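Following the same procedure, sequence and fold were stored together, as reproduced here.

>
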Amino acid sequence: MTTTTQTATAVVGSSVGLHARPASLLVKAATKAGRRGVDVTISVAGSEAVDARSLLSVIALGARHGDEVTLSAAGDDAPATLEELVAIVEREED
């Protein structure tokens, strides 16, 4: 059985970008999704996708307020996972 990867885009809502608290919330949600069998990556334009469960990798993307990021999820719960992660990325968490 082949797992289809689904993608969604989100605009970073936090004034500090995906750094510290916003990145931590994203990583926690991606880690929780991973436990349910959903693999999640995140990327910004011009960069390689990174594992969304890695705080250092997410922060290293350098995504700033207003940047568009692409989230990809593979697994049975991918649509719900993407919906949750998009909401986290787009929230102001400062």
In short: The chain has three helices and four strands.
